[in-house]
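Researcher: Structure for this, please.
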Amino acid sequence: MCEEWWFRRRAEEAEASRRMWDEFDRTRPLRESEATEEESEVTLKKRQTARLVTQD
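Model: Predicted structure, C-alpha cell format:
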C-alpha cells in the first residue's frame, strides 16, 4: 500500500511537471518594443541619508 502511494505521487508530480513545461512552451518572448516601454516607466529615487543627532 505504501508503494502504491509513492507510485501515485511520483506519477502526479511527473504530470504536474509536464503541464508546467507545456505551458512554458506555449509562452512567447517579449518583443523589444515591449521591454523598452517597461523600462521607461521605472524611475529611481535618490536615496536620502538620515542625519544622526547625538545628545551629550
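Researcher: Any notable elements?
Model: Residues 2-26 form the longest helix (25 residues). The chain is about 60% helix and 0% strand.
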